[in-house]
Amino acid sequence: MTFSDLNFIFRLLPIFLIIYYLTPAKFRPWTLLAESLVFYYINEPKLIVVLLAGTVVTWCFAKINIYRRWKWLLALGIILDVSLLGFFKACGVLKLGIIIPIGLSYFVFKLISYQVDSFRGMISGTSFLGLANYFLMFPQIISGPISRFNYIIENDFWRKSEDKFSARLYKVISRIEDGLKYFVIGLFFKVIIADHLAILWNDIKTIGYESISTPLAWLGAYTYSLDLYFDFWGYSLMAAGVGIMLGFPFIRNFDQPYYASSISDFYRRWHSTLGTWFRDYVYFPLGGNRKGWLRTAFNLFVVWLFTGVWHGITLNFLIWAGVICLIIMIEKFVLSHVKWLHMIIGRINVLIIIPVTWVIFAIHSFKDLKFYLLRLFPIWDISIAVNGNDYIKCLKSYWPFLALGLFFSLPFVTNIYKKHKDNFLIVLGLFGLFWIAIFSLANSSGNPFMYLRF
Amino acid sequence: MKIKGFFLISLIFISAIGLSVTAFYSKDGLYLPYWSNVLDRPILSTVLTAAADGVYPWSPDAPVSKTQTDAQVEKENNINNNTSKPENTSDIPNVPKDDRKKFTTVDDSYFEDALFIGDSRMVGLSEYCEALDTRATFYAKKSLTIYDIRDKEWIQTENGKKITLWEALEGQQFTKIYIMVGINEIGIGEPETFRDAYKEVVDAIMASQPNAIIYINSIMHVNKEKNDNDELYNNTNIEARNEAIKQLADEKKIFYININEAVDDEEGNLNSEWTSDGVHLKGAYYEPWHLYLLSHAIV
User: Fold this and answer.
1) Where do you find CATH 3.40.50.1110 in chain B?
2) Other Cβ atoms closer than 10 A to A344
3) How does pLDDT run across B151-177, given as a tens digit for each residue?
4) Given the residues A271, A311, A364, A420, the one annotated as active site
């Protein structure tokens, strides 16, 4: 059950919130833990064992190491975590029939983050409840965002309040209202924009890449770029919104990435909780950019190699990561010396190269990828039976979703929203977006490809 | 005007309760066809699913679609009555014992007065087979079913108006008509009900186009992966329906052409190399279908 499921929105979430806030403040962490386990159990009734085992083992390690500070124990913990993820990923690649537990990679990221931060003395104490809630909290368990441990401590609703009942009730409801706004926007982004653009991307696949016109190939690249953006940004907003409803702070995962000034900047704004994770736990420990340009290049290479492999063990992810790593190096070592050139080429990189890298990211089969790239850049002709008007037909059917995608990508839309989010009309608008998304969900019954229609 | 606190949550709460009550109140009436297991999904979704079909809380209790169907069937009968005469006079007098016709090979000029009717796979044929698209007329639409062809206004005219096939055929004469539908309605009714609806359509077309030969294209198979994993859209179900519509062929004016001969692999599934979703041919592989039509023509 994901967040964009009618049963989650109208049943599970309200029930969770009511139980959570009926619990006395002191016991709310226990309620959250119980609810997180229920949520995960609904999604993954058997493999929940893996996460429970991981949580307990990490807790034992942390318990020992808070006094001993053994470096080897920290290393052992990290090796165990990485092997756990590696094992399930390898099973997937070798097709052994063992399925990876949902959200395992995000769980492992948190395990490592906790152990390192604890070792660095950034976490005081080793409360099992705090640790388990951090690892397993249901708003983040499936697909992030990857918070740090301090996120879990900053919750006012876990401390006894001296206010009167009515003041407390108002605080709770306006908190839920705050989270609900993020949730509604995220839901609309995911269900209306991303899921519909996904159909267009799928239509292109159905035609076969050898038969698409070059304009359609580019339309496809931008469609997929927007699809991925609104899918993940929408999901992150829903997750952050649920977190806020529970009393946690907002956690930002996307910050107008397509308005980045370069590809390095793009990856500071895109899925930034993953980016900062790699920065703090891989790039900086390797020395970051403080040990000369050769080491910097090597460190960047390591970070992107890990990022590529983490997304999947197929050639296309390595090419994807390789291309981005290479361009970041060029930006860093060459372009940064000529400011005006960096400004121009950086933007071009974001607006032209990033969509091409997303195509590489999306197409796992090397042969298909080759065909798609040759349709994007028709340096030699591999086309068969191309219909030159195909992109017009696609634009005619999908322009509303493309237009919505472009509109909501504009930074000024977000800025206006932030400024006026308590405005009567804006709230009415959100109300409309909510029911549009719900209407679409009710009629697609959870299938992103709507009904099966041929 | 600034609204702080709980405006949005109140609006959503009230409207959700309202929809749920509406759904519950009419669960034995208006929403009966949409009412599913209460445990599966929130009951308010009933109202939304129904609204997508044009059934609103204020709609009259009797399902609207029924009256529409009746009206259209009537219209169909009119067509039958109006145009049945020429057919009788021209065809019936010379009926020797064996006038069954055989397939021959033709060239593309054959399609100049041909009409193609079908679902998204026929749309694909029009988009990726230039030889046909430049010569023949296509009335094809994604998700089209035999029932849509019979009952609905589904053909878009140049001024954006939607009309029925019967209206579209008025004042036009085609000599070859190719039909391929059947995949979308595979979950609706039995092979026999499908065949009966198909027969109604074929009869009505013959009445309106007395000089036409009708080609019933077999429903195209799905590929092995789809066939093995899909309880509904598999080749067993497709073949059951192909067998049913095959019976409509009289080898005189109505012919069944098994285009699966052109697109199947050795195991009798749609060739996996030629499709990416298991259902539609890739743009590059409509040619075998085209060639099959060229070599299975009646003159």
Assistant:
1) 85-91+100-295
2) 11
3) 999 999 989 899 999 999 998 999 999
4) A311
